[in-house]
Design goal:
Blueprint: H1 3-16, H2 36-42, H3 45-50, H4 52-63, E1 80-81, E2 88-89, H5 96-99, H6 102-114, H7 119-152
Antiparallel strand pairs: 1-2
């Protein structure tokens, strides 16, 4: 019984404590990483529930930083998205060779050069892609139609023949 009040008081102390160490005057808060997923993995889910505003602020700030390790350059206005790794970098680290995608891109380009796709193959891939889009749209329309029927036609009865 005496332990329960102590646990409650320690949780209140942890509620008052800042989620991240405070920044020094004139500097940004150091979250320890530029990767959003890595940042969120470090924070327990109970803390996220309690301090959602702090977590959202941290994620927004980390998302606006260059994804190169130890680079703190903001990329909100001027940045480059890598087509290969889908990360966002400042102009200094935007080239694939600089941030680490160079070898993979070199292999991919070499494969494309040595084994080019014919125009017929490219057309077939585009046709399949367009057919998938049309199918998805039709399935979505059918699902919406079913949802409307179930909500409006709930009270009607079907007639039996014979």
């Amino acid at each position: 019984p005496a332990d329960d009040p102590n646990k409650a008081s320690t949780s209140k102390k942890s509620d008052d404590a800042p989620l991240f160490p405070p920044a020094k005057p004139g500097k940004r808060v150091d979250y320890g990483t530029n990767n959003t997923l890595e940042l969120l993995e470090r924070i327990p889910s109970q803390v996220v529930d309690l301090k959602l505003d702090d977590v959202l602020t941290a994620v927004k700030e980390v998302d606006n930083l260059c994804d190169y390790p130890r680079c703190k350059t903001k990329t909100s206005l001027m940045g480059q998205d890598c087509q290969h790794c889908k990360k966002r970098f400042c102009f200094k680290h935007g080239l694939p060779e600089v941030h680490g995608c160079g070898e993979e891109i070199k292999r991919e380009e070499r494969k494309n050069f040595l084994h080019p796709k014919t125009a017929k193959t490219i057309r077939q891939e585009e046709d399949v892609k367009n057919a998938k889009k049309r199918l998805d749209a039709k399935l979505k329309d059918m699902q919406v139609g079913r949802m409307q029927k179930t909500s409006t036609g709930g009270g009607s009865k079907k007639k039996k023949g014979k």
